[in-house]
Each structure stands twice: as structure tokens, then as C-alpha cells.
Amino acid sequence: MGFFLLSGISSPKVQHIAPGAEVAPQREALQTHTVLLTGYNAVPEQTNDDPFTTASGAYSNPEIVIARSRDMADELPYGTVVEIAAREGTPSGSCGIEVVEHLIGLRVVADTMHPRKKNQMDIMFPVDTKVSIRGKEVNPAVALGICRDVEVRVVGKVDIRGIPRTQTELAAALNRASLAARN
User: Fold this and answer.
1) What's the CA dihedral at 181, 179, 160, 139 to 10 degrees?
2) Is residue 13 in a domain?
3) What is the CATH number of the domain that holds 76?
4) How far apart, in whole angstroms, are the C-alpha atoms of residue 7 and residue 179?
5) Could you tell me which of 36, 38, 40, 37 has the C-alpha nearest to residue 125?
6) First CA to last CA across the chain, in angstroms?
7) Would you say residue 97 lies in a domain?
8) Beta-bridge mates of residue 174
9) How does pLDDT run across 73-108, given as a tens digit for each residue?
10) Residues 130/139, Cβ–Cβ less than 8 Å
């Protein structure tokens, strides 16, 4: 007799289990990348003449958008949904990820960085939001700084022409995709 064990958002796999055997939950390995992580704002000084439109054509939504360097385009095409986590043992140095962590959430790859950037991702932050760092109120992109060796995990894909507007909508879209993969 076989049982189907489903996990994550990937396609189901069949695992044969002996009757009465204990089953440990299994999770399929997700595609991961270790990158240099920085932040930016949708302003002409940090983008191009049209800061309201990303390179993919999507709206520059600082709650959802992340940019990736051009060398990562094949692995992380537009519409790829990622989650970000600082790796254990990552030296803090100029990295303030813990200060802006509440602003990151899930992100959709919808923008591209300058060609000189390699193996890097850039989180879009709201211009009008401030966070406190060492007693000063600063832009989250400044507070984030430069984070080395950050793990970025692919957790799904959405249609770039209609990416969700909020974290709640994005999580719901991923949940629907996960449920569809199970049927």
C-alpha cells in the first residue's frame, strides 16, 4: 500500500511506506542562492527616468518587488517569488537585516540591476518609511546596508502581468498555486 506525502509548493512525489512505520515529514529541497543583498528606492536617482515602472513592466511596489542582477536572469526570471533569510554565522558588519526584517516578507523578482552588479539582489523599500538604527531614523535601504552571504530561496512563481499588491495577496496566490499542484 502506498501513501502520497505532499509538501511545499512543488509537484507531489510518491513515497512507499511500510504499514505501521513512522513517517518523518519531508520537504523537497528548494532552489537557493547565496547573494549579496542591498536595498533601493523607486526614485530617479536609484532607478531610471521612470521610477514607477520596473524593468519587467510591473508597477514599482516597495511591498513586493525585488531586483536581481542580470547574471541571475536564467535562474530567477521575472515572476519568481523568493523568501530571504540571513545565513547562520553571517557577520553583521554593515548588514542591518534584523532592523528591516519586518519590511521584507516574500518578494517577487520584477526588476533588474545595473549590468556591473553580479550575484546580487536589491530589495525595493518605500521612500517614505523610516526605521530606527542607533537612535537615528533612516530609510530602510540605508539601514539594510550591504549584507553578504544571504540565502534567497525560491518559493513559487506568479504571473508578472498581475503580481499581487500586498504581502497578504502574495501569500494567498502562493497558497492557491500550492493547492493546484496537489490536485
Assistant:
1) -130
2) no
3) 2.40.40.10
4) 10
5) 40
6) 20
7) yes
8) none
9) 999 999 999 999 765 555 556 788 989 999 999 999
10) yes
Closest CA to 93 of 140, 153, 36, 33: 36
pLDDT tens-digit readout, 41-66: 877 666 667 677 888 989 889 999 99
Give me the residue label for grid cell 536595498. 39
Question: Residue ranges of the alpha helices (H) in 29-162?
Answer: 97-104, 140-144
Tell me how crowded residue 76 is: count the other CB atoms within 10 A of its CB.
Answer: 20
CA distances from 115 to 41, 42, 70, 118, 180 (A): 18, 18, 6, 8, 37
Q: Residue 144 and residue 130: Cα distance in Å, rounded?
A: 12
